[in-house]
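[Meeting: bench + compute handoff]

Bench side (C.D.) handed over the final construct sequence. Compute side (W.E.) agreed to return the predicted structure before the next meeting so the bench team could plan truncations. Sequence as handed over:
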Amino acid sequence: MRIKAATIALFPAQLYTRSLLQFKIQNVHHNQGWDRLLPLPQNCLDELTWWHQNLTKWNGRSLLPLTPQHTMYVDASDYRWGGVYHQQVVQGHWTTQERAQSINWRELKAIHLILQSFPHLTNTTILIRTDNMMAKSYINRYGGTRSLLLNVIATTIWEQCKHCNLWIQAQHIAGIDNVQADHASRFSPSTITRFLEEGTQGSQGRSYHRGQDLFIHWGRHYNIDLNQFSVVQLIEFLQLAADSGFAPNMVGLFRWAVTAFHINSSTLSSSPELHQCLSRLKKKAPPLPLSKSPVDLTPSFTFLRSIPSHLSTSLNLLSKKCAFLLAAAAFLQPSDLHRISLSACSIDDSSRLHLIIVVPKETRNGRHIYKDLMLLPLTDDVDLCPI
């Protein structure tokens, strides 16, 4: 309580009580009580030394926070950090190690880097506007005890401020309103280059990255803002993709891949002109052939023939064999096999198998249906008969 009360009258006090508070929490909360004598670790001794050396230096300081004279906007994305101060934009990209940190860590680190980008700022007060509540808390509370990593950055920030005689306050701003800093933290030429290099790694999302890759090159060629392009420009790009031979489904995928760049993607997704364009491209596309390339099932049937259809064979093998033969004989999908109603199945006097598939994926006029199938016995090849 004495430590906490002292912070009211001494502005950087919380910077030099975190180790003491953490030491207290660790020991008191672990049933060691208040009355036990414990040796203090070095970090706690360093804080007490600071109090001994600096306590009298802060006499006469104002107990109330000063009114900020300047405003700084800060934001961090997965790839970059950015900030705006009096229309001056600073930005940079994260290292691989920094990108692996939490968004709270990156937001605090962005504040630190942006303050370092303006070394001429001294003897003044700054309002830092951020869309990260945790970063706001760790700035205004001079750190915290929940995260050691966040506390280290917050302490570093305040040490820098103390060195430059800066007073900073953090204020939350909704992400949708933090446009300038958000823009600065996202895409620059160097970020786009790194993005293109990373987009070719791995098989997952290659089609998605392909659309983004094409859009970036197209946008560079025509000097288009990749973060604030218009609906008309997006339609022009999608039309070009369709004219280049990309299928309508792929063009639709490109649409979602590209809108991820925009600072206000909701304005694009709700555009009636964009929906009309995609619908028109589908209607103009050539008919899809339903024929498929032939597949030789001989190896599969040879293997199935090696599984005897009698009681000595395990139920697991027989089930797999039956499922494959049923699918091959009736052209069933795996989902159809899953929906076979066993209680409704029957074999008539002619050894014909009647199957009922309940609620398959297909619908008729928006209503669920069921399939009634009949399979004839394969009398001349019992080993491959599904009945």
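W.E. noted at the follow-up: Residues 83 and 181 are 5 Å apart (CA to CA). C.D. will use this when planning the next construct.
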